[in-house]
Amino acid sequence: MTITVAVADDQALVRAGFCGIIAATPGLTVVGEAANGAEAVQAARAAKPDVMLMDVRMPVLDGIEATRRITSAAETAGTKVIILTTFDLDEYVFSALRAGASGFLLKDTLPADLLTAIRVVAAGEALLAPSVTRRLISEFSRIPADVQWPACAPGASGPAAAHGPATSDITRLLTERECEVLRLVASGLSNGEIAERLFISPATAKTHVAHLLAKLDARDRVQLVITAYQCGLVAASP
To answer: Which residues, 6 or more positions from 231, have their beta carbon under 8 angstroms from its beta carbon?
Structure first.
């Protein structure tokens, strides 16, 4: 199965470099390019790529708003957005995650890691490496309490949903084991590390995470982390 990818970056050389790497890789194909956020939205609508590599700082429409429009529209909801950034975990990255991005990569990422990230995201698995997830988690201790992240629980609506599902809602929805796995995901553990911690096989750990994604209607592992903190299942350190 071929994975389709679109690349949005206002720097022609950078865009050409990413496209060249992708096009030269068996099993991957470039189906669209964009030089600004507005073109990125158009490319997503026209080609419906599996994965969109999205720069943040672009003219006409920035990558954050472009990401929000792509992930919130039914016709492009199947496209996973990977944010490309020059700065590790800067304010733009967190805005992009709130907008629905599946994660991020630094622009100096090695080609092999870029290709791996594309495949992982296209497969519906976690983009963020455990070390990156841990840095993301550390940011929760510095984000003001009144910052609202998008709710991930199914059926969430209205004012209460803006603050995320309650702990009691999560514990009723999930099994005790699934709650345990969610806490470990929110702690930055990989599937392999979760398996070791719970004395289960990696395949079983992966299955539990898949069930969490389905039950919480989460796009990816990032939203699982967000949900765990939103609902109070895991508390950010002061």
So the answer is: 153, 164, 165, 166, 167, 169, 170
